[in-house]
Amino acid sequence: MEVLDCIQGRRSVRKFSDKKVEYNTIVDLIKIGTYAPTAQMREPWGFVIIQDKEEMKRLSDMAKIDILNRIDELPQFKNYEKFFSDPNFNIFYEAENLLVVYGDTTTRWYKEDCSALAENIILAAFSQNIGTCWIGFSKDLFDSKEFKEKYNIPDSYESVSTLILGYMNFVPNPPKRREPIIFSRGK
Ligand SMILES: Cc1cc2nc3c(=O)[nH]c(=O)nc-3n(C[C@H](O)[C@H](O)[C@H](O)COP(=O)(O)O)c2cc1C
């Protein structure tokens, strides 16, 4: 697939085919991701891979309860309150594969580095007919003490990106993007 077609054709995918994504396929995507630029070549990342639908449902329920309990402190989630209250809403959309990218907070640019890696993974996956969707709703859960202890994540790491993954049956049409604002053209 041509790079520009990959960038312009990619969409967030929330519905997947039944075809299994192998663990090693996800590891290969991570390895491709690591070709991202990183400040001072620190490569400040670590990963959690979950391929267990029941565990993902449990985590989704925990994230929803946590958000609902704090909804007044989280104005950006207010619009989604009815989804979080719906027992049938799974924040991971019934996906079977979850990848959490953690960044080493002792480095200055871990958020930028890990986001660059995540986008590489998203595009590499798309080029192999694997759809992804970045899930922000679970961030606080993945930074919680309980989760980090259970999944062996060092204290100094923070979750930067969470991706659900699965083979695609179809790709939604790319939406129109807003014209970018060029603040200045300089002299
Ligand atoms: C940081 C971040 C957090 C996101 N969180 C969620 C999420 O929790 N749930 C969801 O369905 N989509 C989430 N998305 C996906 C966006 O909704 C999606 O990228 C946007 O609507 C543009 O659509 P497209 O990716 O298909 O071009 C997130 C995207 C980013 C970059």
Helices and strands, in N-to-C order?
Answer: HHEHHEHEHHE
Helical content band? 25-40%
CATH superfamily of the domain at 3-53 and 97-167: NADH Oxidase
Query: Got a strand count?
Result: 4
The average pLDDT score comes to 96
Rg, Å, rounded: 17 Å
Structural class: alpha+beta
* CATH fold group of the domain at 3-53 and 97-167: NADH Oxidase
What proportion strand?
15-25%
Strand order of the largest sheet: 1-2-4-3
Number of helices: 7
CATH class of the domain at 3-53 and 97-167: Alpha Beta
Question: Which ligands accompany this protein?
Answer: flavin mononucleotide
Question: What kind of sheet is the major sheet?
Answer: 4 strands, antiparallel
3D shape: globular
Unreliable stretches covering 5 or more consecutive residues: none
